[in-house]
Amino acid sequence: MGLLFGLAALGVNSASLAVAFGAVGIGLGFGLQNIFSNFVSGLILLFERPIQVGNDSKINGIWGVVKTINVRSTLLQTYDNAPLIMPNSEFIGQTVTNWSYKDPRVRRTVNIGVAYGTEPELIRKEILAMAEQHPKVLAVPAPVVHFADFGDSALMFRLYYHTTLDFGMISETEIRLQIDERFHELGIVIPFPQRDVHFHVAE
């Protein structure tokens, strides 16, 4: 107030100054709002600990490992080895998938198609036996194989199994390679999409 009176004594319009200071105050308020929101979100992350350093997490379609949690932001190291600094409010306001939260087990799915005419029960037993014997597949919960569907070009089967987070993707690759090798030994065909085209000749 003293500043306004002093400027008014110098002939400066106090009403214009009040409007200007009000606009500046509103701008600062909006700017500090994000800072305050991230600060509060940081405190929530530090005390409630929904994510922790070392967790494999996914947010906004980005998957990575939590490296540091600070008061304002969190550092996420993506699997492309890119450091990603995210505002803490993102972790509070968005849905976060924390793959490391309490239980390191993850369920994986492998889809398999075989040619029509193949005995379905044989396929189911072969896939299940390979999954049960695989060293990276957990015994509990036990793997299961479903006859999923009659596809356009194949009988579709779906293998569900559990493994640990570290072996999620590599186990899928190893199982697919094993299935391909075993099916080749048994003469089981994994078909590719086919289309029959019929031509009608106008008389």
The domain tally reads: 2
Q: Describe the biggest sheet? A: 5 strands, antiparallel
Radius of gyration, in angstroms, nearest whole number: 30 Å
Structural class computed from helices and strand pairing:
alpha+beta
Q: Strands across the major sheet, in which order?
A: 4-3-2-1-5
CATH architecture of the largest domain: Roll
Write the SSE topology:
Elements: H1 2-9, H2 14-48, E1 56-59, E2 62-69, E3 73-78, E4 83-87, H3 88-93, E5 96-98, E6 105-114, H4 120-133, E7 144-150, E8 155-164, H5 168-186
Antiparallel strand pairs: 1-2, 1-5, 2-3, 3-4, 6-8, 7-8
Family: Belongs to the MscS (TC 1.A.23) family.
Subcellular location: Cell membrane
Membrane topology: Multi-pass membrane protein
Describe the structure.
Helices cover 40% and strands 26% of the residues. By secondary structure, it is of the alpha+beta class. It folds into two domains: 1-101, SH3 type barrels, CATH 2.30.30.60; 105-186, Alpha-Beta Plaits (2-Layer Sandwich). The longest helix has 35 residues, at 14-48. The mean pLDDT is 83.
Relevant terms:
203 residues; elongated; 3-stranded antiparallel β-sheet; MscS_channel_C_sf; Alpha-Beta Plaits; 2 domains; SH3 type barrels; 8 strands; 5-stranded antiparallel β-sheet
Briefly, what is this?
This protein is an alpha+beta fold.
